[in-house]
Amino acid sequence: MKTICPANFVRIAVAVLACGLLVVSAVRADEIKVVTSATFKPAYLELVPEYERATHDVLVTEYGPSMGRYA
Q1: Sorting pLDDT into bands at 50, 70 and 90, what band is 25?
Q2: Cβ(28)–Cβ(55) below 8 Å
Q3: Gap between the Cα atoms of 26 and 58, Å rounded
């Protein structure tokens, strides 16, 4: 019967865990729907690429009125 050295076991366990985390993070990317007014558009458009890069989420934007009736 072959035994596994504790050091090798730890290396294998860490490698398996790292692969699992990579798969989970890739699957976890979400599509987030954002409704905002044109008043915030310049600041919002400046922040969107940085947010998407940091979180791997995709922002889907819709612009609506800042006052008045909503459809």
Answers
A1: low
A2: no
A3: 13
